[in-house]
Amino acid sequence: MFPHRILRCHVSWAAIAVLLCLSSTVCRAQDPQAVNVKFAFRLSDVDTRFEQVSEMDVEKEGSTELAKSCGNRFPFWIFQSTADAMPRLDVWLSRKNSTWYLNASLIHPTGRDLKDKWTSVLYSPGDLDTQVLPKDRAWTSTIKATFENLIASENSNEILTALQEFAPLGTQMAAVPAQLTAVLPLDYGRYQALSLSNFRIMCQWAAHGVVTLHSTGVGAPNDFTPEVPKFKGIWVLHNFWEFGGHREDVSGHQSDLPSLTTLAVYLEQVNSPPPQVSVAP
To answer: Distance of CA 145 to CAs 69, 171, 200, 203, 280, Å?
Structure first.
């Protein structure tokens, strides 16, 4: 039996992060598409502040640390600092008069018009009258502290919205035969916090075009894949079929589901159960 209504509740990101860190993946599931993080100074004012290490080495170190910060804050995605492909979070410094800024921008394919650039003050006017600019690797801790404040502030929900829109959680889906359900390649042990959430699944419909399935987790695991079980994934119920801007109940397209090829799976809305309801362990 599937739930008729999923309640949307406030989610504690810190609690979710703990759950994800404590859980382990017994079988190999598909990791979400990585979001690349790249830090570069882009500011000539700092060129003389490197003596023991190169500016490029500090940029690489900074990229690694910022990727870790993103992973702690937004635990449903994988963040890495080893590639330049989109989606990519670019982070850099700028200065206007005596104010220094730390900037972050999500580089992504064309899509919805969403806020995708954020800024935080690194040094306010007068700060550098009583302190000096960092040197060498001291830059990393300074930049990381400001960056973590940036992603934890009121910007957090905007960044989350941008990730939900432009950063897929996966590129596969296993249909459950003769049902309007499917299993996503997200290990249930790790992603149980998403087991009641809404997903947007983009698919190629043979000889037609791109279809978007709007689906909701049922709060229980199922085998991925049903025919040849590999691990327990997130089990979802398809609700709506969207094609050419027209959305309708998916029940009228059950016979079309086998002809779909999954392109990308996006997190659309995080839903958590009310206190009196528990999801399957």
So the answer is: 10, 34, 34, 40, 38
Comparing CA positions, the residue from 92, 80, 108, 213 lying closest to residue 147 is: 92
Quote the pTM value. Answer: 0.85
pLDDT, one tens digit per residue, over 33-60 is 799 999 999 999 999 999 999 999 999 9
Length of the chain: 281
Could you identify the residue written with the tokens 């991925």?
Answer: 224
Cβ distance 154 to 68 under 8 Å?
Answer: no
Q: How far is CA 229 from CA 83, 99, 275, 280, in A?
A: 32, 57, 32, 18
Which DSSP string do the residues of 86-131 spell out, in sequence order?
A: SSEEEEEEEEETTEEEEEEEEE--S-S----EEEEEEE-TTHHHHS
Token representation of residue 188? 């249930």
C-alpha to C-alpha distance for 194 and 170, rounded to whole angstroms: 14
